[in-house]
């Protein structure tokens, strides 16, 4: 599989990475570890995990696979994370991750999930960033990196402070304009760039009609189109796809390795379309799920995407049959705004609620 150099590190990373957040049955440790090993034997060498993924079993699963991968014939790299706000939180997470992953050193260690600039300032002032750098000096991690949901112009500010060697961020046909400046800032500073959610949290494949314009040919599978589109971008080191099983690995591998390559003209056309039409879709990251009334905000926001993607879809059916939700639940909303404050895309959630209620109740 094709590889790219990760920023200034010199490490050659496969263009397709393994995302360890969607195992089909994380309680079946052996079968889940077999999925990791299947990817390794196909040539994938970047494995991303984190505490709390898959009912807090992801790191343990990857650690089981690591025991076998150490016996393999090609190098591999493991990425994990901590959202700790202070040195003790970082150290506790790091020591736990090392033990779970059966590693003495973690290749890429993330300052995880920086959501706002205030959050970023707290990571610095509280000592979390310094502790990650201390761990690097101690040889417990090899590369200090950051994972963020900030908009592009704020990502640039974090990058240009110079703490990190790489960045992991969501970037795809749904939110490309929102994060474009961040991608460019990483390239300007010769950083590794890892793309999470390259399929928009699954929204792109299941909305083929709306996103068909990104295809190079009519019969091109949507997964292939989404990955090949990103593959052409020389600023991107790797795209991590969340794999449930071996079949998912094979499908993504085939899409990335043997798919129809994009032309520069096609990419420019797609970018123009995305800039004009698709920067306001919810990416279902889930960070809005802070409602004091218990409303599962992101499920309603995902349904509201249908108002933009396919006007022929019935949002009431999506709510009921896909999410088991009733539009009347939104009557509990007090318009406190906590969900909007937590939204990583700064979307007008309360406005979308009203549009969704109007659309559903009018039917």
Descriptive terms for the model:
2 domains; 18 helices; 363 residues; TIM Barrel; alpha/beta
Describe this structure in words.
47% of the residues lie in helices and 14% in strands. The chain is α/β, with parallel strands linked by helices. The protein has 2 domains: 3-275, TIM Barrel; 297-362, no CATH class. An 8-stranded parallel barrel has the order 3-4-5-6-7-8-9-10, surrounded by 6 helices. Strands 1-2 form a two-stranded antiparallel sheet. β8 (166-170), α8 (176-188) and β9 form a beta-alpha-beta unit. α3 (58-69) crosses α4 (87-101), α7 (152-159) packs parallel to α8 and α14 crosses α16. It is globular. The mean pLDDT is 90.
Radius of gyration: 20 Å
Strand order, largest beta sheet: 3-4-5-6-7-8-9-10
Q: How many β-strands, per DSSP? A: 10
Structural class: alpha/beta
Low-confidence stretches: none
CATH fold group of the largest domain: TIM Barrel
**The CATH top-level class label of the largest domain:** Alpha Beta
Average pLDDT reading = 90
- Mind summarizing the main beta sheet? 8 strands, parallel, barrel
Q: Name the CATH superfamily assignment of the largest domain.
A: NADP-dependent oxidoreductase domain
Coarse shape: globular
How much helical structure, as a percent, in the residues? 40-55%
Written as H for each helix and E for each strand, in order along the chain, the element string is EEEHEHHEHEHHEHEHEHHHEHHHHHHH
CATH architecture heading of the largest domain: Alpha-Beta Barrel
Please give the count of helices.
18
Amino-to-carboxy terminus distance: 50 Å
Number of separate structural domains: 2
What portion of the residues fall into strands of 2 or more residues?
5-15%
